Amino acid sequence: MVETGTTEAGRQATAALATPEGAPAIELKGISKAFGTVQANKDISIRVMPGTIHGIIGENGAGKSTLMSILYGFYKADAGEIWIKGRHTPIPDSEAAIKAGIGMVFQHFKLVQNFTVLENIILGVEDGALLRPSLAKARKELKRLAEEYELNVDPDETIEELSVGHQQRVEILKALYRQADILILDEPTGVLTPAEADHLFRILDNLRREGKTIILITHKLREIMEITDTVSVMRRGEMTATVKTAETSPEQLAELMVGRKVLLNVTKTKAEPGRTVLEVENLSVKDEDGVERLKGIDLTIRAGEILGIAGVAGNGQSELLEVLGGFATGTGTIRINGEEIDLTGKHSDGQSRRRRGIAHVPEDRHRLGLILDFTAWENMVFGYHADPAYQKNSFVMDNAGIVSHTAEAMERFDVRPPIPTLPAKSFSGGNQQKIVLAREIERNPDLLLVGQPTRGVDIGAIEFIHKRLVELRDQGAAILLVSVELDEIRSLSDRVAVMFDGRIMGHGPVESATQTGMGCLMAGLGGDDVRGMDGWTISDEAAPEETD
Amino acid sequence: MDFATIVEILDSAVRLGTPLLLACLAGLFSERAGIFDIGLEGKMLMAAFFSGAVAAVTGNAWLGLLAGVGGSMSLAFVHGLASITFRGNQLISGVAVNFLASGFTVLIAQSWFHQGGRTPQLSGNGRFEPITLPGAEAVKDVPVIGQIYANLLSGHSILVYVAFAMVPITWWVLFRTRFGLRLRAVGENPESVDTAGISVIRLRYTAVAITGVLAGLGGVYLATGLAAGFVKEMTAGRGYIALAALIFAKWRPVPALGATMLFGLLEAISNRYPNIDLGVITLPIQFMQAVPYILTVIILAGFIGKAIPPRAGGQPYVKER
Question: Where do the TM regions start and end (chain B) (predicted)?
Fold first, then answer.
C-alpha cells in the first residue's frame, strides 16, 4: 500500500505488518489476570488468523472486556504472553498496542464531543506541531477510506452532532487512520439501530476482504452467527470453547455460555385480557428545548396483557415512560382504572403514581432505578419508604425488618449473592435489575412500566426476568414493555405498538407482526409489508413505502 | 465629562484589567485541560510577594519577575501534585493554595523586612516603568487620535503589552497547534487522549505550569507595575474576578480580553466616582465592585447563551476501561 500521504509512523507500522506465512495475526498464550480475589481471566489462549473475524461471546462479567483491555494495553496480565503476527509483543500501554497495529472500538466511544471528526481522527497522530497540514492530510485519507469501506462521515461535523452509528464509524476510521490491521470491537451493536448494525456488518465484511483481522466481542448470538468465521466462548473468566462458526449453532453457543440449556423463547399461554387499566389519549410531551417528543399518543392496556412498544431508541419511548411514571409533564389525558391523573406535575409525581398502582422499572437503572452506593436493602424500599410496614414508629424506620424482608425477596428473585447489606454497585447488571424488579413487582401493581428490562443483562437472568413478567401478567397486571430488542418484544408481548418520531405508527397482535413489517414501521414507512399484517391498525402518518 | 477624562478612565481600565487578563488566561490554560483552579488568587499573591521582595533587595525588576513567577509556579506544582498525581479534590486544593499564600507571604515579609508584612517601597529599576511608545510625545496634542495614542496606548509597563500579546498567542496555541488540540481534548475527554497513546498526566502538568507562569506575571505586575511593592492581601480578590471573567468569556481567549477589560473598566469607574448619583438613587461603591459577580451569575444562569465548562473539568483522571 503506497499512499502519498503515509506518515513516518505509518510506514514503520506498515513495515511491521509483514506476517510470516501461516502465523496467526494474534496469539494469546496462557493469559491470566486477577483483580483482588476475583479471577477475571484464567489461563486464556486464543489464535486468530489474519483476514478473519473472530467472535468472543460470553455473559456479562465473563471476562471478555478484561481480556481485550489486556490486549490493548489498559491492564497488565499477571501471566501469559501476547504474540502479534508471529512475534512476541509485550503490550505495556495503548501506545504499544497502536504501534503493533491494534485498533480498538470501545463500547463507550473515546471521542471528544465538541471536536470535529477530523480533529478526533488526528488526535495523537498529528504530523507536526501545527495542525493545518495534519488536517489536510487526514481529510484526503478520510476520503479514500470512506470510498474503500463505505465509511462515510462528514469530516467537519462535530461529534455531538453525529448519530451514534456515525460516531462509531469515526472510531473505526480513527483505528484505520492509525494503520491498524487488527480491529477489536467491544459490543459494537449495543447502541445501534438495526439498520446501522447491518451497515456496520457490511463495513466489517469489507475490512475482512481487505485482509484486516477483526475481533468482535458481543453477547448477541445472532451477530456471531451472521458475521464471524470462528468463535470463542468465555465463561467465568475461562475460555470454554473455540469453534468454527459454520460448525456450531446458536443453541450450542448459548449452552456453552451459561453452562446449561436456556430457553430463548418464552413459554406463555394466550393472554386473557380483562378490564381496561390504562387509557392514554392524545398525549403530547415537549422537552426542555420545546421540541415535541410525543405527538399525540393514544393507547390502552387491559389487565392481563403485555403491550410491547417497539422502535428505534429515541423515538419517544423514553418520554412515554417518563410521563406515565410521573417525572415528566405533558398534555392530554391519562386514565388509570378509569380515573384521570394529573399530567402537569402540580398535583402528581412518582409517589402519587405509585399510590395509584403504577410501578416502574426504569430504562436506566443506574440513574433512576437504584442508588449504587446504597445497600440492596435500602434500594429495596425506595419509592415505598413511606409504607407503614417499614416504620417502627412515627420517627424511626424498621431497618431490621426491611433487611429481613429484602433477604427473602432476594431469595425469591434469585439475586446473587443474596446479601442485603452489599451496596447495589457490587452486584452484576442482571442482579441489579432483579433487585429493581423485586421492589416493583412484589407490590402487585395494576400497571407495570418496564423499560429495557434486560439491557446489559446476561442470558440466565434474561430468562428469569421474562418469566417473572409473564407471571405478573397472568396474575392480572397490565404491563407496558418498552424495548429496543425486537426479539424481546416479539417473545413477551401480546400486542405490539411501533413508535416512530413521537407517534405510534401502528399497533396490532404480535402473532401477525412480521419482521419486515415492523422494520418498516420503525422507519416510519407504510407499504405492502405493513398492510399485510392482519389485525393491525396503521397510522396515517406512516409514509407510503419509498420506491427504490 | 470631556474626552480627556474618558481616555484617563480607559487608561486606568487597561492598567487595572491587565492583572485580571493575565490571571484569566492562566485559568484558561488550566481549566481547558480539565483542572479547575480557584488558586489563581494565591498564585498571584505569592508572585507579588516574591517579585516585590527580590526587586527590593536587588533593585532589579527582572530578577523580581523571575522570583515571582518561580513562587507562583511552586504553588502551581503543589496544585498539580494534589489534583493530578494524587487525584484530590481540585477545589479543596485551590482553597489550600490560597490560604497558604495568604499566610506565608505576610509571615515571611514580616520576618525579612520588619515592615508589618509589606516589602520596602520600590523605585527606579525595581519597578517596571512605563514605556513611552515612539512618537507619543509628538502627537499627544493631536485631538482624539493623538490623545488615544499618547495617553491610552502609550505609557504602560512592558507587562501590559505582554498581557495583550498573550491573547492572540493563546488563541493560536489553543486552536492552531498540536499542543492546543491535545490540551483541549484532555479537558473534554481525557480517555480519548489516553487511548490515543498520549500521557494525560504530562499534558495536565504542562497546562498547570503555564498557568503558574501567567498567574505569576499577573502577580508580578501588581507589585512592580501597578503598585510599588508588596502589601498584605494586595490581590484583593482579583483571582476570583479573573475566574468570573473566564466563565463570562466561556473559556475563550478573545472574549477573555473583553471580559477582563470590562471588569477593569468597572473598577476604574468606581475608583474615580466612588458614589454614582443617578438622581433618584446613589449607587454606592460596593455596588460597582459587585457588578462583575452579578454579571457572572447572570451568565451562569444562562441568560446570555450557555457557558459550558470543559466537560472533564474538576474530575481527576482515573484510568479505567
Answer: 12-30, 42-59, 91-113, 158-175, 205-228, 278-304
